[in-house]
Amino acid sequence: MAKKILVIDDSQSIRELITMVLENAGYRVDCAIDGQDALKHFDGRDFNLVITDLSMPNMDGISLLKKVRAMEQYRSVPVLVLTTESQNAVKEEAKLAGATGWVIKPFVANKLLSVINKVIK
Q1: List of domains in the chain
Q2: Quick one: pLDDT band at residue 88, thresholds 50, 70, 90?
Q3: Among the four residues 24, 55, 81, 83, which has the most C-beta atoms within 10 Å?
C-alpha cells in the first residue's frame, strides 16, 4: 500500500508541484490550503508524513505543528517544513514546535524525495 502524505501550502502551484512529484514517486497525497484547513484532515486518518509551509493565512505552520503534536495519534508522524525561510531562529522555533526536518523553497524534486525517504515510516 502506498504511503500517504499530507501537503499544506497556501500556494496552489506549490501544492500541485509537490503533489505531482510525490504521486510520480508512488505516494498518495492529500492537500490543505493552510493550517486551519489542514486540521480537518487530522480526524483519525493515517499519514506517513506531513509537509507544511510556515507562512500561511488563517493558521501558520508553527501553530499547526503545535496543534498536531498535541494530538496523541499524530505525535510521532514526521513533519517537514517546506519554506522560503532560512533564518536559524525560525528553524529553531519550528524544531521546538515539533518539526522533523526543513526543506528550502524552491526545492529540487530529487532532494525533496531524498529527505522524505530519510524521515518517512
Answers
A1: 4-119 (3.40.50.2300)
A2: confident
A3: 81
